[in-house]
Each structure stands twice: as structure tokens, then as C-alpha cells.
Inverse folding.
């Protein structure tokens, strides 16, 4: 088996009584593009700071490229590009000058430096501001200079903490395209609050809430998950439920509130069964006219709301 690019085992970080990261485990395979989601204060940046060797964990392990973030931090840093939440830049430097300085620091060979900087400017869509002073750039452009910086030494692993925050919709699209292009060649872990964007580019999402990982799955699995049928028919819950239960392929159901004279249910079916016609026929035959019948698949947004808003 190939070695994971990122490996997190029983990781904890306490700040006094606050458990910012509370016993988390996950692995990211080489070339995977993973969205790291969670509300404000969920523990995303803390996890990323540990992975990038900026802060020590309270307990547990993390490895990047097989190297321990605590005991082999220099090796880890060589393999990482890190875009922190707020990018520290020198306001009096010009973009190109800054990237040259950073490339030298990161040991990018002199012979290939100009070419590499050009490539990073291109990838981060900031060629047009290469001669501007950093202090005069808008937040979105500063963020993208940060992204160019993370790519300078062509590290296999990129950890991007909210690369899309504060960007206007056009810039968000551009940055997303840049991130999408980076997947495959690089392992990318990026945090965000903006679910539609994550859905556009990621293979997989990890959702963290109050320091704990509550969901870790592939978007393709979410899309092909067992659907729920929403059904509303005339009658009481007691009258209708037995009829629904009698339909073959029905696994489970939950009644949901609706107005008087009607009963509404979310019905779960066995995988591969489309039970809509059988449900409709049975209720119709037993004298319960149907007002609503819909197939619903749980979307990333539903999962996020369930975890991060309702704390389930
Ligand atoms: N240096 C610190 N001292 C004390 N508490 C901290 C420190 N850094 C983070 N925390 C706390 O740890 C928890 C997790 O914070 P973290 O910054 O990791 O969240 P986040 O998921 O990145 O949130 P956001 O979406 O707002 O960036 C929060 O309760 C935060 O207040
Ligand atoms: Mg954060």
C-alpha cells in the first residue's frame, strides 16, 4: 500500500479547558484533494497548524510524507506548502521581489528560479500584479500571492487554510480553478466554510465540529447514498404508517410535521429500490390520496447542517 501523504492519529490540542482538537484520526492519500469543513472555532486551523509544525500537539501523532511533525519537523516543512489564514507579507516589497526572496529562502535553485516564479504567478492567476507593492494589493490578491508562495518549492503536500475567504465571486472561481489544477499532482487539504465551492473541487470532505471529526467521506458516496422518499397523503400517521411499512423495499421511516388532515413521512428504501410507484399505488388503493411524493438525496449541505448546526 502506498504511504499516506498525511496521517493523523489520536491527535489532541488543549488550550486550558478548551479542547480545540479532541482525539482526531484521518489519512489523506497522495494526490487526494480534501475539503476540511467546520464552523468557526471547530478546530480546522489548529489541526493545520499542528500538521505544518507551527504548534505542537498536546497528544497523538501527525505525519506528513511519513515524517513526524514533532520530531522531524524540518523534513515535514520541506514537503509542505502552507497558506495560513492571514498571509503575512511585507507591504513595501513588490510581488515578484517577495516571491524571489521566498524562493531563495526555500532553497529553489537559482537557475530555475525565474521560471518557477513565472509558473507560480500563472498558477495563482496573479501575473498582472507582479510589479505591484504588496501593501497596495486587495485581500484577494494578497491571498493569491500566499498561494503562489506555497507552490514555489513544488511541495507534494499543500495545506491551505481558507484560501477562498474574503474573495469576490470572480476571484473565488479563479482560485478554485487553481486549486482544482493542483489536485492530482499535489495532495491538497483545504479548509472552507463555503460548501458549494468545496463540492466543485473536492474528492472527499472531512467535517469537524468542536474538535471532533463527525464526517469523513467521498462526495461520490454522498451522491449515491440511499435516497429518502418524502411522501404526504391524506389521513393520520396511524392510518398511513402500516401501509408504508407493508411496501416491499421499505427499510425505515420517520413521520414529519405537516398540516391537519395529512400525514407526512420520510421513507428510507433499500439501496437500488425505487419505491415511489409501489408507495403511491398502495396508498391510493387504500383511499389515501397523495399530495406530495419526492425522491431526496442527502446533500453535503444537509450533512453539514446536521453536524454543525444541530450538533448531531
Ligand atoms: N492560541 C489559542 N489560545 C486559546 N484558544 C485557542 C487558540 N487558538 C485556537 N483556540 C481555540 O481553539 C478552538 C479552535 O480554533 P480554530 O482556530 O482551530 O478553529 P477554526 O475551525 O479554524 O475556526 P475558523 O473557521 O473561525 O477559522 C476555538 O475554540 C479557539 O478559540
Ligand atoms: Mg480557522
Amino acid at each position: 500500500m502506498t504511504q499516506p501523504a498525511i496521517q493523523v492519529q489520536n491527535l489532541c490540542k488543549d488550550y486550558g479547558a478548551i479542547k480545540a482538537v479532541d482525539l482526531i484520526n484521518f489519512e489523506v492519500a497522495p494526490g487526494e484533494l480534501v475539503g476540511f469543513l467546520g464552523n468557526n472555532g471547530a478546530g480546522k486551523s489548529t489541526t493545520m497548524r499542528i500538521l505544518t509544525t507551527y504548534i505542537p500537539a498536546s497528544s497523538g501523532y501527525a505525519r506528513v510524507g511519513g515524517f513526524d511533525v514533532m520530531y522531524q519537523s524540518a523534513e515535514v516543512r520541506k514537503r509542505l506548502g502552507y497558506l495560513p489564514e492571514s498571509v503575512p507579507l511585507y507591504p513595501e516589497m513588490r510581488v515578484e521581489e517577495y516571491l524571489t526572496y521566498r524562493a531563495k529562502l526555500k532553497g529553489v535553485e537559482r537557475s530555475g528560479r525565474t521560471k518557477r516564479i513565472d509558473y507560480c504567478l500563472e498558477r495563482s492567476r496573479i501575473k498582472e500584479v507582479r510589479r505591484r507593492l504588496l501593501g497596495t494589493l486587495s485581500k484577494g490578491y494578497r491571498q493569491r500571492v500566499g498561494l503562489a508562495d506555497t507552490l514555489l518549492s513544488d511541495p507534494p503536500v499543500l495545506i491551505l487554510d481558507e484560501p477562498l475567504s474574503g474573495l469576490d465571486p470572480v476571484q473565488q472561481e479563479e482560485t478554485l480553478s487553481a486549486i482544482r489544477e493542483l489536485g492530482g499532482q499535489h495532495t491538497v487539504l483545504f479548509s472552507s466554510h463555503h460548501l458549494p465551492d468545496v463540492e466543485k473541487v473536492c474528492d472527499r470532505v472531512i467535517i469537524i465540529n468542536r474538535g471532533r471529526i463527525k464526517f469523513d467521506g467521498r462526495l461520490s458516496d454522498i451522491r449515491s447514498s440511499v435516497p429518502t422518499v418524502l411522501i404526504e397523503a391524506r389521513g393520520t400517521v396511524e392510518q398511513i404508517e402500516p401501509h408504508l411499512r407493508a411496501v416491499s423495499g421499505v427499510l425505515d421511516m420517520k413521520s414529519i410535521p405537516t398540516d391537519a388532515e395529512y400525514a407526512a413521512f420520510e421513507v428510507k428504501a433499500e439501496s437500488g429500490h425505487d419505491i415511489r410507484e409501489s408507495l403511491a399505488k398502495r396508498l391510493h388503493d387504500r383511499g389515501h390520496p397523495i399530495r406530495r411524493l419526492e425522491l431526496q438525496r442527502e446533500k453535503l449541505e444537509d450533512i453539514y447542517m446536521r453536524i454543525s448546526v444541530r450538533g448531531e
User: Anything to note?
Assistant: Residues 90 and 134 are 7 Å apart (CA to CA). The chain has a mean pLDDT of 91. Residues 110-123 form the longest helix (14 residues).
